[in-house]
Amino acid sequence: MSILHVGETALSVGSWVVCSIGMMLFNKFAVRAFPAECTLVALQMAVTVVAMLLFCARSIRIGSFMDVLRWSMVVPFFTGMLLSSILALKFAPMSLVVVFRTLSPLLSLMIERMYPDPLRISLHMVGSIAIMLVGACMYSSAVHRSGLGGICWVFLNIFFAVGDRLLQRLMLAKDQSPVDISKTGITLLNNIEGLLPLLAVMLIKNEFADIPEAVASLTTSGYVWVTLSCLVGIAISYTGIWAQSMISATSFLVLVNANKFVIIFIEAFCLQSKILTPMQVVSACVTIIGGVMYGKARDTLEKDVRTKREKEPLNRPRDSKV
Question: Which chain regions cross the lipid bilayer (predicted)?
């Protein structure tokens, strides 16, 4: 692996982590100020589409109509991930969302085993998964029932997030079955096609009737949070695809766990919007540390597999001449 590739991988993951922290915080405040959640997500998508067309038109490349059809399988998961994330943040504390999202690699790993080129499972990976599960159980036991409101949206968000990352990995990674679409092209397709199912949901729940009241109740700070959520939405749409094209789906879901410490710190000690007990803080840290350990174990296994494959041609016996 070249230094350039390592640098690009670090930059892509780092950019996504920063955008992820900003997106969670800004969405938390934005959905409070503008409770029409479907409309908020649709606005974020529309702003991203406009930004792609205005500033990235030259870099948009779509190979064929078949590539578009293949990528369309990702869109429902992308839209569901954004909407369920907003709803989870609306009804549940950020720390609860953070802890249970850490378990995403468990589901991701089970499905990723069916890939054309799956990885083995090591003992260290199993151990780190056990640590994550113990931490999540400890956190849940320390939460009052009233604090578990919105847990269904958290699990639904995990489902959509895992599906989105796995399909993106399958269609972006060079060692799998990539599509011939540029990163900006994928960002454009995600947000244009994603508006269609979102509009359908808005019709079903009759949210169009709530938009005038939601807009009228917006304060100056509310406009600021909504604007910031839209701007970060543009960045996270691109950086998410960029990072996913550089690393595996499971690694992507795990390596970004470092930002979870920041989220819990901000909510508990800066915003003070949710008072966390010592047991909750410890259990959340245990879960996140388990996720980080899993990422390390996964990376070690990936390196071992690559090294073994590189040595295989050298170890093959030469054909003897008769």
Answer: 6-26, 38-60, 80-100, 121-142, 148-167, 188-204, 224-243, 250-269, 275-294
